[in-house]
Amino acid sequence: MVIALCCTLVSAAACAGSSDALAAAVDRAFQPLMAKYNVPGMAVAVTVDGEQHYFGYGVASRQSGAPVTPDTIFEIGSISKTFTATLGSYARVLGRISLDDHPSTYLPQLAGSATDKATLLNLATYTAGGLPLQFPPEVTDKAQMPTYFQQWTPDAAPGRQRRYSNPSIGLFGYLSALAMNGDFTDLIQGQLFPNLELSHSYIDVPQAKMDDYAWGYDDSNTPVRVNVGVLDAEAYGVKSSATDMLRFIEANIAPDTLEPPLRDAVEGTHVGYFDVGEMTQGLGWEQYPYPTDLERLLVGNSIAAMKPNPATSITPQSPSRPTLFNKTGSTAGFGAYAAFVPDERIGIVMLANKNFPIDARVTAAHAVLQQLSTPAP
Fold first, then answer.
1. What CATH number is associated with residue 299?
2. Planar angle of CA 376, 272, 174, nearest 5 degrees
3. For the segment 326-369, what is each residue's pLDDT rounded down to a tens digit?
4. Is 139's pLDDT higher than 60?
5. Quick one: DSSP state of residue 341?
6. Does 113 participate in catalysis according to the annotation?
7. Number of neighbours of residue 150 by Cβ within 10 angstroms
8. If residue 173 lies in a helix (H) or strand (E), which one and from where to where?
9. Percent helix, strand and coil across the chain, each rounded to 5?
10. Domain for residue 288, yes or no?
């Protein structure tokens, strides 16, 4: 089952003409992945110069047979980190935090610990000194979290190494919420999502929207949804739709359409802080000079990139040349990818209810973006 919708912001004739070629490109890139990786359902959303296109494939639930629509809610996994980064950037714009602050400013229990030698910027960019991908199994609730960070031993000085880490950016989000005198989930759902006009995005999906919430499928094709974990909301807890994710991408492409201070907060997530190989790490988003060859994107989004890699501090700055921003996300039953190029005014989001290989997602999205890019003079 395939559904293709073009945004009604343009004329019907223009929509039909432009969407036919785009639909063919999206079909070529993504449809083969459905069969190859046994993906039940997928939503692809593309924006081109403010024109929105939605493509739905397959089903949101094998049990019900409900088709994927633009409003189907998927788990977006670690793309959630871009919302965490936006909230932290918002707190900075409001003067509630400084990225140069240390964790004990907001969580005094961490004073004197190795974790407290890092800054909030280090936590947000995975450069605190080697925090692991996940909390160890014995850390099962937030009450145990401070003790873990008190006792953690780094394997590098802050700012010298990037090691992709849920506890790292999770703590950044948690501290940002403390600085705003609120609960992280409440701030995201009660302030950030409404201010971004995201009406199908949640950390805790309400009962009234559960019919829109897709089921994910694990490697054995058992229906699953994300497990609860320490700082899960901050690191991988957002559930969203293609409609909302494309709106978020468009807000990042053109932050000037937002009211301050949200405009400044979104722009703040586009500042680069560390070079890691051929990728630049900002707040949430990862950056590449554009045009970007596929191999470079694949290396930056590979398993090797999630391991400890040398990081070089750079002068914080927004990109001075065309740049591709991207982020992947996965849970046990879902896989997602988002990328956009502000200078080209193009962006793409892929949401699927199967965690299939990241290189396949990136390759498919890259093929579509290549077709959309403005030809070089």
1. 3.40.710.10
2. 135
3. 999 999 999 999 999 999 999 999 999 999 999 999 999 999 99
4. yes
5. E
6. no
7. 16
8. helix 166-179
9. 40, 20, 40
10. yes
Strand partners, 54: 5, 45
As a whole number of Å, the CA-based R_g of the chain is: 20
List Cα–Cα distances, 351 to 32, 44, 56, 327, in angstroms: 15, 6, 10, 12
Token pair 């004197």: residue: 112
Contact 296/262 with Cβ under 8 angstroms? no
- E strand segments, 197-266: 216-217, 223-224, 239-240
* 172 CB-contact burial (10 Å; exposed 0-12 / middle 13-18 / buried 19+): buried
| 266 is a domain residue | yes
Listed as own residue / partner, the contacts of 11-18 with beta carbons closer than 8 Å and 24 or more positions apart are 15/51, 18/48, 18/51
CA 263 remoteness from chain centre:
18
Read off the pLDDT of each residue in 150-156 and give the average, rounded to a whole number: 98
Domain count for the chain, please give it: 1
d(CA 363, CA 266): 27
Answer whether residue 102 is part of any domain.
Answer: no
Euclidean distance between CA atoms 348 and 342, whole angstroms? 12
Domain that holds residue 192: 73-84+184-316+324-338
pTM equals 0.95
State residue 4's pLDDT score.
52
Nearest one of 244, 302, 249 to 278, comparing CA atoms: 302
Place of tokens 């991988």: 236
Q: Which of 19, 61, 78, 240 is catalytic?
A: 78
Q: How confident is the model at residue 1 (pLDDT cuts 50, 70, 90)?
A: low
Number of C-beta neighbours around residue 232 at 10 A: 17
What sign does the CA torsion over 360, 283, 226, 69 have? negative
Confidence band, pLDDT 50/70/90 cuts, at residue 159: very high
